[in-house]
Design brief:
This protein is α/β, with parallel strands linked by helices and 560 residues long. Among the domains are: 283-408; 452-508, no CATH class. It contains twelve helices and 34 strands. The chain starts with a strand and ends with a helix.
Length: 560
């Protein structure tokens, strides 16, 4: 079945399996099933809506609206919300039910939900568990001595990274797991002492690797398995290897830049597999591990019978249109940040921890069930717009609201972008679906203008050699060579650079993150042919890209 997206106008396909999923996930109220309607937006526009609610990386100094103590928050002080620190938000000095209200059938659901959303206090930082000396972090669990890291868990002495699990002594990373002493790595697992590398597993004491497995003491290599003392895919003796490594002198910025360019030129001419992943069955997408019957999904692990999912690192079953989380998640649709035993979630934002039957709600946690249009509830059930009802009252009223939303075209939809608390350019949506300020304004989206105070001229002359840099640099203000934004070098960071003998970065943390993001393929599939055997394939590599793309069988034959 073909439909036209009402937002961007592109044609998109609804498969028979999609129809079966909508039937399966549709809830039953008082014995009547309320079918999820066919989407009016394409998968990209649905994803854009969800991502526009997530400020993952922008942090601000603020004060808790309840206790008045200074805090770090994802909500800038100019936003007119009540924002609580973690202790106050999870404490007993306020009650989200006090904001409850009746549903008005003369008005749309989203209009009424926005009024509730705007007035219920917000959690300044999403921090789970006890973090130690890690104030400048967000969406994390169990950190120690970490700074500006986001979306991860269990890390120590890590700085400037996003999406991680069990990590130590690492800087500037994206999507890494069970590793130590990484620098500028993307999608690496079980690695040690690895720098400037991407899509590697079980590699150590190496630099500038891509798509390598089990390699040690290798430099500038691609598609190698279990090799040692290789340089640009050519074998060397140990003595030759060590001599050439000394000759590189990567502690000087000009030499590092030259080496980076050589490596990228080398990578373009190396074959790439149709998609990156392992131990999968019947999947399409990219960066998938241990998935089955999973389609058009990206950066996910352990999915079964899922579609249009991203950043689901902890497993899920029977889900569609989900961004982030997982972990025993079942029967979820069109939601962001749902997981940890969550069941039956539709149109939700950050709901989970053994909660179930939650619809069009946000930040509802910890064993909650049967909630509709609620915000900030824990351990509650049978609530609509934060007002409690008896079980019978709830089911009678929620059915009426679902019918009302069917008439207005809002049933099953995620919250529209103008309802987001953030400027569009503060959110993850800007990374995947970038807009200019004018484009955002024309669509009615918020925008956060930069603070001029963060763009002062740099007066410090940064030496080319890391060994010429003194500890006093931690007192200096630097300016990014790309965007001009100011940034600083912290003491721990300087020690790390000297330890691994690499120069100080010339870009701010945000621009370094953009570079890492650019190394990943877009979340879009293209039809093309294997450059080796000519078989038809679906891949995230666009047909006009210069890389050689091989089907899985041809790629495995090329592995050295």
């Amino acid at each position: 079945m073909q439909k036209k997206c009402k937002n961007c106008g592109v044609q998109f396909t609804i498969e028979d399996e999609d129809l079966k999923f909508y039937e399966k996930v549709s809830p039953v109220f008082n014995g009547k099933k309320y079918l999820i309607p066919l989407p009016e937006l394409c998968s990209d526009c649905r994803q854009q809506r969800r991502l526009a609610f997530r400020n993952e990386r922008m942090l601000y100094k603020s004060r808790c609206s309840l206790c008045g103590e200074p805090m770090i928050s994802i909500y800038s002080p100019d936003k007119e919300y009540f924002v609580y620190c973690s202790n106050c938000f999870w404490g007993d000095k306020w009650n989200a039910l006090s904001y409850g209200r009746n549903f008005d059938f003369s008005r749309s659901f989203f209009e009424q939900w926005k009024e509730l959303w705007d007035i219920v206090p917000k959690l300044g930082l999403l921090v789970l568990g006890d973090n130690v000396n890690s104030d400048y972090t967000h969406d994390n669990y169990r950190l120690k001595n970490c700074y500006l890291v986001f979306d991860g868990e269990q890390a120590q002495d890590c700085y400037y990274g996003e999406t991680f699990d069990h990590l130590k002594d690492s800087i500037d990373f994206l999507a890494v797991k069970h590793s130590e002493l990484l620098y500028e790595c993307v999608n690496c697992q079980n690695c040690y002492n690895l720098i400037f590398s991407r899509y590697c597993h079980n590699c150590s004491d190496s630099a500038f690797l891509i798509d390598c497995v089990g390699c040690k003491n290798c430099f500038g290599c691609a598609n190698l398995h279990r090799k040692e003392y290789y340089i640009f895919n050519k074998p060397h003796t140990r003595e030759e290897y060590e001599k050439k490594m000394r000759f590189l002198k990567l502690h000087q910025y000009k030499n590092l830049q030259k080496t980076q360019h050589l490596f990228e030129d080398f990578c373009v001419n190396q074959p790439k597999k149709v998609y990156r992943g392992q131990m999968n069955e019947n999947v399409t997408g990219d960066n998938l591990t241990q998935c089955k019957n999973t389609f058009e999904s990206y950066d996910c692990n352990g999915l079964r019978d899922c579609k249009f999912c991203t950043n689901m690192l902890m497993g899920a079953n029977d889900c569609m249109d989900i961004n982030i989380w997982g972990d025993r998640l079942n029967l979820a649709y069109n939601s962001a940040g749902v997981g940890a035993g969550a069941q039956s979630m539709i149109g939700c934002y950050y709901c989970g921890f053994d909660s179930n039957n939650i619809y069009h709600s946000a930040f509802c946690w910890k064993g909650s069930s049967d909630l509709f249009g609620c915000v900030g509830l824990t351990h509650k059930k049978y609530c609509i717009l934060n007002k409690e009802y008896s079980k019978a009252e709830y089911y009678e009223l929620v059915g009426r609201i679902a019918r009302h939303m069917q008439k207005t075209g809002q049933w099953g939809e995620f919250f529209p972008i103008p309802l987001s608390s953030f400027g569009y350019n503060e959110t993850v949506a800007q990374e995947y679906f970038p807009l200019t300020k004018e484009q955002a304004a024309n669509k009615g989206y918020k925008w956060k203008d930069p603070d001029p105070k963060e763009y002062e001229d740099q007066t410090y002359n940064l030496p080319d050699d890391i060994f010429e840099i003194h500890d006093s640099i931690t007192n200096e203000i630097l300016a990014c060579v790309d965007c001009g934004k100011n940034y600083k070098i912290i003491k721990q960071e300087l020690s790390f650079y000297k330890k691994i003998k690499l120069p100080i970065p010339r870009k701010c943390p945000d621009c370094r993150h953009k570079v890492r993001m650019a190394f990943r393929n877009p979340r879009k599939l293209y039809n093309r042919k294997c450059d080796k055997c000519g078989i038809a394939i679906k891949t995230a590599y666009a047909p006009n890209r210069p890389e050689m793309i091989y089907c899985e069988q041809c790629y495995l034959k090329e592995i050295v």
